[in-house]
Design a protein that fits this description.
Elements: H1 10-15, E1 45-57, E2 62-67, E3 71-72, E4 78-79, E5 89-98, E6 101-106, E7 109-120, E8 123-128, E9 136-142, E10 147-154, H2 159-166, H3 175-186, H4 198-204, E11 206-209, E12 212-215, E13 220-227, E14 231-238, E15 241-249, H5 255-267, E16 282-286, H6 288-301, H7 315-333
Length: about 350
């Protein structure tokens, strides 16, 4: 198995506005990677994207988000959250809750409004009040241990069906993932076919089940084979070709995850000069040759033209496989929210 670490843009996903839960909030299926069970994609669930600490002072309504540090020090050494001298970043807000609505201010400026679902403020779920009722959304979950998690939440009854219902509908929370799926769809087309026919693509992408999407009249399937709080497995299939893509999420708040990300950075010959945890926040494993070969096999079988100068599995084919794997993991991990 050839191991590739993808540069998923978690910074963008975590920087986006959190999406809200409606008043008909359903209880979320609780699970974690230490358990043997996985999420049922026909029931509500959550995936944890990132974690930080927080403190809340009820007397003055002060809310402090304490963001873990995972970076290189002055000498190029790793500075993780448990290392001596690590100074965590903090952001302070004034937050007030009234009738289920949380207002957050930075200084005198209002920066966000959230819908609140919980019994003892601030513990519970916070979501953007403008997005009430969405089935696929992201938000903040605050617990009794002073941990705030950025979560991607599904609150419907058939995961892939609900995603498809929102695909290419201009929903700002889905733009990035829509593009990934569109790019994957276009991988199988002839080189000269560079345009995207929205109507045709929508007709070609179908929901095989709550766990599966198919494209091109069912020729290719994309199945969520396994999903937990911080890991998952996606399988792409064409006839006898089957390529698994597995992923494990890392959190900067955990020293071990910070160290693993830094090790990936050190071993990455294409790495940027400066270490960025977000770039290595996911450990994604896939066989790049398997994915590239699957695309080529379908094209050959269906007599879809190949670029004449492209070898069987060259750098371009492997780059397409990398984009595909990155997009699939982003699609599932982000719960279709940036």
């Amino acid at each position: 198995m050839i191991r590739k670490k993808m540069e998923l843009s978690l910074a963008k996903m975590m920087g986006a506005a959190t999406l809200a839960l409606g008043s008909t909030f359903a209880m979320v299926a609780c699970s974690d990677d230490s358990s043997s069970g996985t999420f049922d994609l026909d029931e509500p669930f959550e995936i944890v994207l990132s974690k930080a600490k927080y403190s809340y002072d009820e007397d003055n309504s002060s809310f402090v988000k304490i963001v873990p540090v995972c970076k290189t020090g002055t000498l190029g050494n790793l500075v993780g959250p448990d290392d001596k001298g690590a100074e965590w970043d903090t952001v302070t807000y004034k937050v007030t809750e009234r009738k289920g609505v949380v207002t957050a201010k930075k200084g005198k400026k209002e920066v966000a409004k959230y819908s609140y679902d919980g019994e003892s403020f601030p513990v519970g779920f916070w979501g953007n009040s403008e997005e009430d009722g969405l089935k696929i959304l992201s938000g903040l979950r605050l617990d009794d241990d002073d941990i705030v998690s950025m979560v991607s939440q599904y609150n419907g009854s058939c995961f892939m069906k609900d995603y498809y219902a929102l695909f290419r509908k201009g929903n700002s929370a889905l733009e990035e993932v829509d593009q990934y799926l569109t790019d994957f769809y276009n991988l199988f087309k002839a080189p000269r076919d560079t345009s995207t026919n929205e109507k045709k693509m929508l007709a070609d992408i179908r929901v095989g089940s709550c766990e599966e999407l198919t494209i091109y009249d069912g020729l290719v399937s994309v199945e969520v084979s396994d999903l937990k709080e911080s890991s998952g497995k996606i399988t792409i299939s064409y006839e006898d070709d089957e390529c698994p893509v597995t992923f494990n999420l890392r959190y900067a708040i955990n020293q071990e995850d910070c160290e693993a990300a830094f090790e990936d950075f050190q071993n990455d010959r294409y790495a940027a000069k400066k270490f960025n945890f977000d770039t290595y926040a996911n450990d994604i494993v896939y066989d790049e040759y398997c994915v590239a070969q699957l695309v080529l096999d379908l094209k050959r079988d269906k007599k879809i033209p190949l670029a004449k100068w492209v070898p069987v599995v060259d750098d371009e084919a492997k780059a397409q496989a990398k984009s595909f794997a990155r997009g699939l993991v982003n699609l599932v991990q982000a719960g279709f929210a940036r």
